[in-house]
Design a protein that fits this description.
Aromatic amino acid beta-eliminating lyase/threonine aldolase domain-containing protein; 2 domains; 7-stranded mixed β-sheet; L-allo-threonine aldolase activity; lyase; globular; 14 helices; alpha/beta; Aspartate Aminotransferase, domain 1; Aspartate Aminotransferase, domain 2; 4-stranded antiparallel β-sheet; PyrdxlP-dep_Trfase_major; ArAA_b-elim_lyase/Thr_aldolase
């Protein structure tokens, strides 16, 4: 049975209720609104967003357009919807192919939406010499619009920043953008965690936005909102995107109650990301001492580890932490993933490392289990 939050104070895990706070390290989507965020939602001015009359939604769209330097923005329910609307808006008619990283969210985790919604062919690109795609990787998979009826010419290049927590270097983005311009194709940036990338790199959202025709920015990951994402682009692009939002069933009415959470998060949670990144690094350092090996550089709030040589059994660690209201995913595509967020604090990291160290010691001294803190401590 998964752990279930109860009044933001207790967690029900494996059928029993702990006396510890609920702390979820599976994803930064696991956050819940704070009382302050709830108050912002309750106090929101509302209207009908289908008619573009919700003042809080309008304020959010204006705010993010200004932050990115883009002319317009559209508030939608999720990053998946945002990406799919963007691709459908850019691709006016088949045939077309779309380049993406082979492990990108668009390729791996969006239910083959590009094929379904846009009737386009995804071409997954495997970077040869780096984690993120470089321009030479894009060139190697690019299909020219040369009149060959056997091919679906590349019409769109999609990038992802961050990719599994790794920041895509701005110069690589610029080089791909220059190549796209030379070929007359568009660039969409899946910036679901661009908030994190901007904080980690020191590069503004607007600087990233210069290199893309559209950007998806998630609100329910690092910003900790209960629902939502924002798509930005030109005024004409957003006008068309608004139509596809309706077509996909994503038009909503008094959505300002959710937009208010996002406005609160931009002002109050986004500024805490640097501290979250620092905390993530401290957690990584402690786990490395126990034999865990990072599979990717840890630059933001995400850790992906190889546990094959660790001194701790992952199932035992997950169980011991679950009894203390700390939830981890033991296997993530053959690896062990941890994602921190603003509701994970130093105390949580201390507990994870303390429990892990005691379990590791127990491999040498079996009776060490007796020293593990009980649920009542």
């Amino acid at each position: 049975m998964p752990c279930i939050i109860k009044h933001n104070e207790q967690a029900t895990c494996n059928g029993s209720t702990t006396n510890f706070p609920f702390r979820d390290l599976r994803s930064d989507t696991a956050t819940v609104p704070s009382p302050e965020m709830y108050q912002a939602m309750v106090s929101a001015q509302l209207g009908d967003d289908v008619f573009s009359e919700d003042p809080t939604v309008n304020a959010l769209e204006t705010r993010i357009a200004e932050l990115t330097g883009m002319p317009a923005a559209l508030f939608v329910t999720s990053s998946t919807m945002s990406n799919q609307i963007a691709i459908r808006t850019h691709l006016q008619a088949p045939p077309a192919s779309v380049l993406c990283h082979r492990n990108s969210h668009i390729f791996q985790w969006e239910s083959s939406g590009v094929a379904y919604h846009s009737q386009a062919q995804l071409i997954p690109v495997a970077p040869k010499d780096s984690i993120n795609m470089k321009v030479q990787d894009v060139k190697g998979s690019f299909l020219e619009d040369d009149g060959n009826i056997h091919k679906a010419a590349t019409k769109l290049i999609t990038l992802e920043n961050t990719y599994n927590g790794v920041v895509m270097p701005i110069e690589d983005i610029r080089e791909i953008r220059r190549f796209a311009n030379e070929k007359g194709v568009l660039v969409h940036l899946d910036g679901a965690r661009l908030w994190n990338a901007s904080v980690a790199s020191g590069i503004s959202l607007a600087e990233y936005a210069k290199e893309a025709d559209s950007i998806n920015m998630c609100l329910s990951k690092g910003l900790g909102c209960p629902v939502g994402a924002v798509l930005v682009g030109s005024e004409e692009f957003i006008r068309k995107a608004r139509y596809y939002r309706k077509l996909f069933g994503g038009a909503w009415r008094q959505a300002g109650v959710l937009a208010a959470a996002a406005l609160y998060a931009i002002d109050n949670i986004w500024p805490t990301m640097a501290a979250t990144h620092k905390l993530t690094r401290r957690l990584l350092d402690g786990l490395v001492e126990l034999g865990f090996k990072p599979e990717l550089p840890v630059e933001t709030n995400m850790i992906i580890l190889d546990a094959s040589e660790a001194k701790v059994d992952m199932d035992e660690l997950a169980k011991a932490l679950g009894e203390r209201g700390i939830i981890i995913r033991t296997v993530y595509d053959g690896s062990f993933r941890i994602v921190t967020h603003h509701q994970i604090d130093n105390g949580c990291v201390d507990e994870v490392l303390s429990v892990a160290n005691k379990l590791a010691a127990a491999q040498i001294t079996p009776n060490i289990h007796a020293t593990l803190p009980s649920n009542g401590d």
